[in-house]
Design goal:
Layout (H helix, E strand, L loop, with lengths): L5 H9 L1 H4 L8 H8 L2 H4 L1 H28 L1 H9 L4 H6 L6 H15 L13 H6 L3 H13 L2 H42 L9 H32 L6 H8 L5 H33 L7 H29 L4
Helix pairs in contact: 5-8, 5-10, 5-11, 6-11, 10-15, 11-12, 12-14, 14-15
């Protein structure tokens, strides 16, 4: 399909003579900077770029998901007429942002770090740990966790800054976005890509499945934000202050306890959401989801959530030492 894979794209970007038409007219200094750019010529640089692309993908998906939610009925009506997402955009039925998001997702996937097993399947951090490759697992886990910062900022950040109201609103934004994201994803995966024109029956299933997944996202994020706020010692009041004071003997002790608490809360929240969304695919759409898939997805979601949640919670535990 003339699409560059990650290695081919890296080679193209690393070779300004190929990627920049004006390269030959540049000064010697400009050529030197391009030829030895540390962002593209070192492993650390490539990891930073992969992580940044993942971050951008998550952030833009949240926005596009909200737009898709607002356009959900128009999307469903277009699918009933046998239209693809591309055709709906061409006809002016929905926003062109959907096609832009497809391009962003495709580019982010090209940059994303991937490891493959002997069967050619993409390995998750859990798979890499089981295969005795902890360094690869840690690098991949860090990349995927940092990419989730926009989501954590909306839910946990809202709860820490504005209490229950902030947590409720932040979780609502993410849940609303998930409704649109999942509706478009499931519509294409189950029907459009298979050439199936949906009827009212399939439309009802799409609404139900998307609502269930959005509800799971809201519940998981809302609970996680509240527990994170409590666990991080961020709630005002005498009782919480007394509890926190018991763990202020040293910065190291607070850091360790903060990391463990934040990791458990955010990791459990993400695992819960994963299980509920996989359960929706099984119960609503009849997907063949085996127990090992539930377990695999839940563990990976827990690992990703725990790394980011633990890091933030441990920092806050140290910074917010009660007087």
């Amino acid at each position: 399909d003339r699409t560059l894979n990650k290695q081919e794209l890296a080679e193209f970007l690393e070779n300004p003579r190929l990627s920049l038409p004006g390269y030959k007219d540049m000064s010697g200094g400009e050529k030197f900077i391009l030829d030895y750019n540390p962002l593209m010529h070192t492993g650390v640089g490539r990891w930073v770029m992969s992580t940044a692309m993942g971050y951008a993908q998550v952030a833009t998906n949240i926005q596009t998901g909200l737009i898709a939610t607002g356009e959900s009925e128009r999307i469903i009506e277009g699918a009933k007429q046998g239209k693809t997402i591309e055709k709906m955009v061409d006809d002016g039925d929905i926003s062109p942002v959907h096609l832009l998001q497809k391009s962003i997702n495709k580019m982010a996937d090209q940059f994303a770090t991937k490891h493959f097993d002997e069967q050619g399947r993409v390995m998750t951090p859990k798979d890499l740990i089981a295969a005795g490759r902890p360094i690869d697992a840690g690098t991949l886990l860090a990349e995927q966790s940092l990419a989730q910062i926009p989501s954590l900022a909306i839910s946990v950040g809202g709860g820490m800054a504005f209490g229950i109201g902030g947590a409720f609103l932040g979780a609502g934004i993410l849940g609303g976005s998930v409704y649109g994201q999942e509706l478009v994803s499931d519509l294409e995966r189950l029907y459009i890509d298979k050439g199936i024109i949906i009827t009212d029956k399939e439309a009802s299933l799409l609404r139900k499945g998307s609502a269930y997944k959005a509800g799971a996202e809201w519940a998981g994020e809302f609970a996680g934000a509240l527990l994170f706020r409590v666990g991080g010692g961020m709630l005002a009041g005498g009782a919480s202050q007394k509890i926190v004071k018991q763990f202020t003997n040293s910065y190291i002790k607070r850091w360790v306890l903060g990391y463990a608490g934040g990791a458990m809360i955010e990791g459990t929240s993400e695992a819960f959401t994963s299980i509920m969304q996989d359960g929706t695919d099984l119960l609503v759409y009849g997907d063949e989801v085996e127990f090992k898939d539930f377990w695999r997805n839940a563990v990976n979601s827990f690992l990703i959530g725990s790394v980011l949640g633990g890091g933030l919670s441990s920092t806050m535990a140290v910074v917010n030492k009660p007087t």
